[in-house]
């Protein structure tokens, strides 16, 4: 019996690779006769670089870049020299998890460090870039990234704009003449886990700004600033991408990736499964076990368990989800190919205890799941 183990990370508890090991540990209690394949995954958010490195065997490289507040920080990226492919995770440079809650400022945070990572990939000779956009602390529409790659954003007096999304309301000139010429030969795929446009009530500022420290007035300021940015960008490029599904990902980085890097926006889980050779792994699997911190109605937008379930359903393989929490709307997952879903907790417990015991609970729940699946089988 072959069991494919492919969880996402469990936020604040376990990275995806550790979650996969815990699930495998629980199943091994049942003895021999089970073939276990561990394939940690991600949906484009934090942890995507680790999943891509595990899936492809790429080199892990590190450089010093600016974080979301302009401070120096070490950030990793991945490199496959034989295929000239680079993997860049936005959250490595501009991630929200690196900031304390009181430091989060959607008005002034920057994606400059992401541009520095892309420049490092170009320096290495990259011909293809896989850019994952989840987990951002930013709402600058990728403006910081553009500056790091050689663009100039000026106000009406010809002065360079300061970092951050709020400053874009003063944007008068977008000078792309200094943009790194190597970008024209770089094929870019951007992994997104949302389909929001850049602006409006479903846009980057309104939906994701509050998570990044933006109050109601800040949201209005940021939305107006991004609208100005979109206007000036459309005039400079002759194309307008503000309504593109996914343009609002990572505070507008989806917009910048498409408009300025020519990126193809792809659901993150699909991109990462493709790199992992997931279809081949599924070919003769008898059961798939996946999971993440929370399964809810929003998971259908492109989270890992749903992407896994859709792929497994196409090959007739049952899928069990192990989730830290089953939140409102999770039952809709059944319609996407989920066979069964189980919460990890074995009784009432505070969140701190659940996080500390995550590996133990995953192992226990995985053992029970496989016991149930194999009951009555010869």
TrEMBL record:
EC number: 2.7.1.31
A Pfam family per the record: Gly_kinase
Highest taxon in the source lineage: Bacteria
Transferase in keyword set: yes
UniProt GO molecular function: glycerate kinase activity
Top EC class, one word: transferase
Keywords: Kinase, Transferase
Family affiliation: Belongs to the glycerate kinase type-1 family.
Descriptive protein name: Glycerate kinase
């Amino acid at each position: 019996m072959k069991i494919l183990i492919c969880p996402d990370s469990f936020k604040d508890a376990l990275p995806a690779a550790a979650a996969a090991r815990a699930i495998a540990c629980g199943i091994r209690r049942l003895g021999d006769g089970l073939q276990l394949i561990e394939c940690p995954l991600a949906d484009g958010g934090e942890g995507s670089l680790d999943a891509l490195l595990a899936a492809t065997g790429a080199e892990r490289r590190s450089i010093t870049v600016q974080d979301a507040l302009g401070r120096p920080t070490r950030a990793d990226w991945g490199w496959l020299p034989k295929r000239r492919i680079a993997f860049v995770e936005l959250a490595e440079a501009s991630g929200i998890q690196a900031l304390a809650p009181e430091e989060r400022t959607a008005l002034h945070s920057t994606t400059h460090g992401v541009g520095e990572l892309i420049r490092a990939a170009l320096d290495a000779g990259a011909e293809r870039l896989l850019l994952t956009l989840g987990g951002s602390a930013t709402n600058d529409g990728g403006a910081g990234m553009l500056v790091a790659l050689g663009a100039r954003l000026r106000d009406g007096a010809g002065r360079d704009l300061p970092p951050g999304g709020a400053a874009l309301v003063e944007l008068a000139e977008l000078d792309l003449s200094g943009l790194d010429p190597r970008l024209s030969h770089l094929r870019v795929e951007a992994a997104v886990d949302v389909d929001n446009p850049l602006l409006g009530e479903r846009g980057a500022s309104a939906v994701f700004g509050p998570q990044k420290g933006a109050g109601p007035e800040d949201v209005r300021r940021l939305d107006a600033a991004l609208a100005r940015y979109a206007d000036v960008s459309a005039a400079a490029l002759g194309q307008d991408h503000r309504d593109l599904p996914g343009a609002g990902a990572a505070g507008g980085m989806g917009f910048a990736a498409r408009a300025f890097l020519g990126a193809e926006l792809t659901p993150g889980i699909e991109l990462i499964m493709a790199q992992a050779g997931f279809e081949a792994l599924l070919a003769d699997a008898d059961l798939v076990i996946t999971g993440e911190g929370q399964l809810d109605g929003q998971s259908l937008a492109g989270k890992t368990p749903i992407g896994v379930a859709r792929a497994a359903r196409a090959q007739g393989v049952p899928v069990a989800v192990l989730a830290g929490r089953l939140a409102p709307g999770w039952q809709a997952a059944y319609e996407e190919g989920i066979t069964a879903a189980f919460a990890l907790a074995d009784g009432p417990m505070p969140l701190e205890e659940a996080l500390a015991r995550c590996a133990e609970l995953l192992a226990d729940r995985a053992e029970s799941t496989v016991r149930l699946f194999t009951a009555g089988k010869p």
